[in-house]
Write a structure and sequence with these properties.
Layout: H1 19-22, H2 26-33, E1 41-43, E2 58-61, E3 64-70, E4 76-83, E5 89-97, E6 99-101, E7 107-114, E8 117-120, E9 123-126, E10 131-134, E11 148-150, H3 152-155, E12 161-164, E13 172-179, H4 184-188, H5 192-199, H6 218-225
């Protein structure tokens, strides 16, 4: 057995967040801010509202029905209700939505946060048809209701970086995201050493550690995109 004190200190991850890139790369930063990837995920209240919350539309799944509600304080709730055969209400259970997933070009999914764990709502927004409906995989007979856990594997292609919870590997830290949407460092790598290099009078021998996919050979350039788009 290796003694704990003899283990090497973990390396710093070197991630600094996209805002650290803004001062030197303003044009690129603002251009990317208009790209759908920069809106891949976000918190309710911070993302643009594309949904029609005034329609009061009901979505039905077997004996259950769902309604989406936006309150005056800006919070969004997804309600699951069940009625008996006479139309009397058996229950109405509401879940507050914390996070939206997706740029909104085609649609959005919604996540609920409970004590560091994330769960998907069965209701999604479909931009093309301009309405709420069951999310993919929640069709009648397969509706997992509000019990579908969302882990880092699910979020890898939608979120920038998650904060891990070292005590509970199946949960996230607080806040959940170190950087919510996909940012600069997903394609260019950690920016800390790049910033340090350009902050001082560097030597011509110093190699800039930042990755520029445009300067990679074809296979490596495609591999950057294929992290998610494969």
């Amino acid at each position: 057995n290796i003694e704990r004190d003899s283990l090497p200190t973990p390396l710093e991850d070197g991630f600094v967040g996209s805002k650290a890139c803004r001062d030197c790369h303003q044009e690129i930063y603002h251009e990317y801010s208009g790209h759908p990837m920069s809106r891949s995920i976000g918190h309710i209240g911070e993302v643009a509202v594309i949904e029609d919350y005034e329609s009061d539309q009901l979505v039905r799944s077997d004996k259950l029905e769902y309604r989406v509600e936006k309150l005056a304080d800006g919070t969004v709730w997804h309600h699951e209700r069940m009625l008996d055969n006479s139309g009397m209400l058996i229950f109405d259970r509401g879940h507050q939505i914390a996070i939206t997933v997706g740029s909104g070009q085609r649609g959005r999914a919604y996540l609920i946060e409970k004590e560091g764990a994330l769960y998907q709502s069965p209701i999604g927004w479909y931009t093309t048809d301009n309405h709420f409906d069951l999310s993919p995989g929640y069709e009648s007979g397969h509706n997992r209701r509000f019990g579908r856990r969302i882990d880092s594997g699910c979020l890898y292609c939608h979120a920038g970086r998650m904060n891990a919870n070292p005590k509970k590997p199946t949960h996230f830290g607080s806040p959940v995201f170190a950087e919510a949407a996909i940012g600069c460092e997903r394609c260019h790598g950690p920016g800390k050493r790049h910033i340090q290099l350009h902050a001082v009078q560097s030597s011509p021998k110093d190699v800039d550690p930042i990755v520029n996919p445009a300067r990679l050979d074809h296979a490596k350039s495609e591999a950057v995109c294929n992290q998610c788009h494969i």
